[in-house]
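REQUEST FORM: STRUCTURE PREDICTION
Request ID: SP-0412
Submitted by: Lab K.M.
Chain count: 1
Length (residues): 227
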Amino acid sequence: MISVKKSLKIMGWTLLGIISFLVLYVVSALLISKISVNSDVSQKDKEIEIFILSNGVHTDIVVPIKNEFKDWSKEILFQQTKSKDSLVNYLAFGWGDKGFYLNTPEWSDLKASTAFNAAFGLGTSAMHTTFYKKMKAGVDCKKIKISTEEYQKLVTYISESFTYDADKKVQWISGNSYGNRDAFYEAKGSYNLFYTCNTWANNALKSANQKASLWTVTDKGIFCHYQ
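STATUS: Completed
RESULT:
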């Protein structure tokens, strides 16, 4: 049998390892997020407006509902929201852990099991979409102008993040929403400590050749490049 002294020693080394990992993780996330890619990209003579929107923790990519290159309303249906309101102009996309999205409408609802599954990539993912009538640029909402070619690359990135059914339609997760103009859909990939909702949004910007972090897990890692 393992002695009490040896057990305490193992526990001590295990705790030290966990603390060391967390410190390294936080420091790495802070430092690497400051490294910019596409830092010299210009927004001059670009015709399509998109937005990056943060709620203080999570980043959404916001695009026009319809233009000559993409009509999102053919896939993300107005009638799948509570309001069924079609008098809107923008659509926000936010990727994340499905269990966290659906089971944690408020931080007070967060369960240890949900956090554990999300942190270690044990769950599936979902796409949260929200319709907006207008966008107002500010500290937590940055307007970006991109070219048609860049927008088409962004459309491809977002589209490839969804899971499709046999009829090549996005899979609506019915009966789940935070408000009147939002809906959830099945998505590809798994959320984890190294690939979060903000990592997805950051990679969306990279796909469109926009300023972004080399790697980030936080919204601040994105927004620090748009100050």
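NOTES: The first strand starts at residue 36 and ends at 37.
Reviewed by: T.R.
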